Amino acid sequence: MTFLRRGSIRLFRFAGIDLYLHWTWFLLALFAVSYREGSFASIGWNMLDYAALFTIVTMHEYGHALACRQVGGTPDQIVLWPLGGVAYVNPPQRPGATLWSIAAGPLVNVALVPVLFALYMLSRALGWASSMPELFDFVKNVNEINVALLVFNMLPIFPLDGGQILRSLLWFVAGRARSLQWAVWVGFVGAAGLILYAVFSRSVWIGLISAFILMNCWNGLRHAQVLARMAKLPRHAGYACPSCQAAPPVGRFWVCGLCHQPFDMFATQAICPNCSARYSTTRCLDCGVLRPTNDWLMEAPVLVRS
What we know:
By secondary structure, this protein is an alpha+beta fold. It is 55% helix and 12% strand. Helix 2 (24-35) packs across helix 3.
């Protein structure tokens, strides 16, 4: 998803997390406002309707990011684009931490359901349908938007939130690599079903979403294969990642930033054997977190002589 970062515009920073808007969002906004031009008497209500969608998606993604920070992860930034939002988060590589980071997004929508429904019922009781029909329709639309986003996101199709929640639950019993493999195959089946629905309904939008899901499922399958191979590698004794506690694998898996030659960070005490460059930080190959190299060294047992 790096292409989203390159074409994005920074909007603001909230709670230490940057919110970006991809340039294609403006195209969708123009299309959505024009397409729904007949929904309201004034185009301003159409714009407000789309702004409500923007707000709900933003709150959803901030739910992911703040939950990731709560469990000790690193929330980087949020990017909004035509197919929704992407929260770039890196939770600790534990099933419980990952589960909470993913589930917190839909829980924001769940929390909004009674609030928006109560507002809708209040508008009906006050007779807004006849006295202020555009405001009534706006309240009704916002309520429907939130429910639709919640239902769609909870489909057990990777990489939707439902699919990632399924993967996190499977992680408890099947391990990191196998749980991702299983969730990805469920995602492939779900994407095939969405493609059939897009063909029969002639929905270009569902077709684009299906293509996005297929692309992420393929990348997820490749990542699961890498994780499976890495799990079988021998590991360095006496070292552990400060973030995920995984011992580093034995082999030339780190690449020097100066000479671009691969080497084993822990076999050479964090010194490149080709150009003698010294590294004070090391990236974990299991969780991807960059931490000080000295923090990887586990405390040696103290020998007590009698």
